[in-house]
Amino acid sequence: MKNELKVFENSKIRSSYDEEKELWYFSVIDIIAILTDSKTPKRYWSDLKKKLVEEGSQLYENIVRLKMKAKDGKYRETDVLDTEGIFRLIESVPSSKAEPFKLWLAKLGREKIDEVS
After folding, report:
1. Which range has the worst mean pLDDT, 10-14, 47-51, 53-57, 106-110?
2. Helix locations, 27-95, DSSP H
3. What distance in Å separates the CA atoms of residue 44 and residue 20, rounded to the nearest whole number?
4. What is the mean pLDDT of residues 88-115?
5. Which residues share a beta bridge with 8?
6. From CA 15, how far away is CA 38, in angstroms rounded?
7. Please, which contacts does 26-30 make with residues 24 or more away whose CB atoms are closer than 8 Å?
8. pLDDT at residue 113 above 70?
9. What are residue 21's phi and psi, to 5 degrees?
10. Contact 35, 8 (CB under 8 A)
11. Cα(102)–Cα(111) distance, rounded to whole angstroms?
């Protein structure tokens, strides 16, 4: 796994690329913060996770925990989702930033394909 910071509209998103699976994983908390402008994205995500479980959402089952660098500089486990999971997450969060974020994710995927080709 290769950890990287990605930038969407001046906001940093912790990400990791699994070369073996050829998948990007993104910090859910970072994305929630961007989509909701919440001052407490951890709380928002915690509440949303409970709601997803109650609704029987498959998204909850796709959450992976990876160690990523926290604001204090230490590596801590955090919830991450692959690109497909992030698209499904976006559907669960009402946000005016949803469409621009989807386009940004698609661009990242296209860049990775171009890099490999």
Report:
1. 106-110
2. 28-36, 41-55, 83-92
3. 32
4. 83
5. 11
6. 20
7. 26/80, 26/81, 26/82, 26/83, 26/86, 27/68, 27/78, 27/79, 27/80, 28/63, 28/78, 28/79, 28/80, 28/81, 28/89, 29/78, 29/79
8. no
9. -90, -10
10. no
11. 14
pLDDT in tens, 31-42: 999 999 889 999
How much is the pTM? Answer: 0.85
- Identify the H or E element spanning 60: none
- Give the whole-angstrom CA distance, residue 14 versus residue 79: 11
3-state secondary structure of 117: coil
Three-state secondary structure call for residue 2 = strand
* Strand-pair partners of 77: 67
For residue 114, what pLDDT band results from cuts at 50, 70 and 90? low
Burial call 82-112: b when 16+ CB within 10 Å, e when fewer: bbebbbbbbeebebebeeebeebbeebeeee
